[in-house]
Amino acid sequence: MDKLQTIRKIVQSAFFIKFVILSVFLSSFFCLCIFGYIEQFILLGSIYFVPVVIVISLLTLIFGRLFCGWMCPLGFIFDLTYKLRVKLSRLKKLPEVPKNIHNKLIYLKYVILILFIILTYYLATYTYCSVCPIGALTNLSGTLLSFIILIGVILLGFIYPMAFCRYLCPIGALLGIFSIKPLFKLKLNNKCVNCKLCERKCPVQINLTKNIDQTECIRCFECVSSCKKDAIDFKPFFKR
Ligand code: SF4
Ligand code: SF4
């Protein structure tokens, strides 16, 4: 594992401990779920979390979906899951969903985002929190259903890397909206020899050599780590 991925693993582990373990023993104060915040705002009018939302939003506007690749506890679990699959099956290339299906499915998470906001408002209850897979790992909102969903999405992530993050996560959808035009972008430079090694390692199936979809990129930098030509930059969009 290179230095960048080692640092990412340390940061992910720290957030996982903060998010899950502290939530189990202490309180929802340690929960960083933006959707949970939205539900609290709709149901209770709470705004105590606004500073956290501002920080995560700014982070996303500047760097893209860094939260997904570095801070989300579910992202951490799915990351381990697909890497276990790669190890066990000795895969040289990550499994891909057929492109025509993938290109449609990435919009499903936006439908889920809107649907849960409407359901929370009209049913006046925590609709997403009660099914959120991470709820199963904490004492915040875990239900039998959230536990079953957690097992289901882990299995899904074993077959298709980060499938939950790509297609189902409403937080990914929300952060995707904030990262339509991030300040820092991933770009290929002129050292690229079009070997496509980066594409084979991208867990969310981004065609780096054609078009880097910044809204789908979870900033895991697996592509950067895999490129042997140092041909992928991460810099402000105005820098050439
Ligand atoms: S791995 Fe590097 S050199 Fe190969 S296609 Fe990707 S960016 Fe280009
Ligand atoms: S493009 Fe690179 S940083 Fe973005 S998700 Fe794919 S591998 Fe990770």
Question: What's the quick description here?
Answer:
With 240 residues, the chain is mainly alpha-helical. It is 56% helix and 4% strand. The model has no long low-confidence stretch (mean pLDDT 88).
Notable traits:
globular, iron-sulfur, metal-binding, 12 helices, 240 residues, Alpha-Beta Plaits, mainly alpha, two-stranded antiparallel ribbon, binds iron/sulfur cluster
Plain-language structure description:
GO terms for molecular function: 4 iron, 4 sulfur cluster binding; metal ion binding; oxidoreductase activity. This protein is mostly helical. It has two domains: 3-178, no CATH class; 186-236, Alpha-Beta Plaits, CATH 3.30.70. The chain has helices spanning 3-25, 34-44, 50-63, 66-71, 73-89, 99-105, 108-123, 144-159, 163-168, 170-178, 197-201, 222-226, and strands at 184-188, 232-236. The protein has a two-stranded antiparallel sheet with strand order 1-2. Helix 5 (73-89) crosses helix 8 (144-159) and helix 7 crosses helix 10. Bound molecules: iron/sulfur cluster (2 copies). One iron/sulfur cluster binds next to helix 11.
